[in-house]
Specification:
alpha/beta; Spore Coat Polysaccharide Biosynthesis Protein SpsA, Chain A; 245 residues; globular
Length: 245
């Protein structure tokens, strides 16, 4: 089956190569790779263009789009709408896949067709320290054991549930909650298939940013039928981020 990988980026000239090369290094041989750039002002698009021959040699479909967008989830939605694959994965600029990432997701899908898949991930701190974040299915859903860069979703699931809401910073997690609420079949494989560099908007330690992330996450829980007690989880996650980072 054809698998679509989407990378969204903006002014990513310092980190985009590692992401692109991790897709080129996949052991799976039927991939469509879409770069969705937000009209970068640096050399991001030029760097992406320089890989055309490498993708052609591997016989991967390779497309680059560059235009203004309304943020990361708007860009993700554009990628989904342009995709042709039966399965869709997303790896953002600066993060990268392990070589067997796509093959692992495909094998799991062929064994027992799922509506959503995710796996373990390496969290890489600024000091180079690596921590494995394991995936599991909790009775109460939490992002502590769910990893968006490892997620693969059949195109049919997006058709059924809709795209990302593109309204907050945790809209990927909201989609996961939506899938759970709809009783979609979710498959987890405890194998590390991606690498995520910590930092950025999801780890900004200012009080205002912490409050906004907390309220965004709480809104996502409430949208999907969870009680006001979900606020305890939201506050706990932000407190843990503040202490551990």
């Amino acid at each position: 089956m054809l698998v679509t990988i989407i990378t969204i980026c903006f002014n990513s000239e310092l980190v985009i190569r590692k992401t692109i090369e991790s897709v080129l290094s996949q052991t799976y041989d039927n991939i469509e790779y879409l770069i969705v750039d937000g009209a970068s002002k640096d050399q991001t698009v030029k760097i992406a263009e320089s890989y055309r021959d490498a993708f052609a040699k591997k016989r991967y479909i390779y497309r680059i789009y560059s235009e203004p967008d309304r943020g990361i989830y708007d860009a993700m939605n554009k990628g989904i709408q342009k995709s042709s694959g039966e399965l869709i994965g997303m790896i953002n600029s600066g993060d990268w896949y392990e070589p067997e990432a796509v093959e692992t997701a495909v094998n799991a899908y062929e064994r027992d067709k799922y509506d959503l898949f995710y796996a373990d991930i390496n969290l890489i701190k600024e000091n180079g320290k690596v921590m494995v974040k394991h995936s599991r299915m909790d009775h109460f859903p939490t992002s502590r054991h769910w990893n968006h860069p490892t997620m693969f979703v059949p195109h049919s699931t997006y058709e059924d549930l809709g795209l990302y809401r593109a309204e907050g910073i945790h809209d990927d997690f909201e989609f996961f909650l939506r899938a759970r609420r709809a009783d979609k079949k979710i498959t987890i494989v405890n194998k590390t298939i991606a690498n995520f560099v910590t930092g950025g908007a999801s780890n900004d330690k200012s009080l205002a940013k912490c409050k906004k992330r907390c309220l965004d996450r709480y809104r996502d829980y409430r949208l999907n039928g969870y009680s006001r007690l979900a606020m305890l989880e939201c506050v706990g996650i932000e407190a843990a981020k503040y202490i551990l980072s």
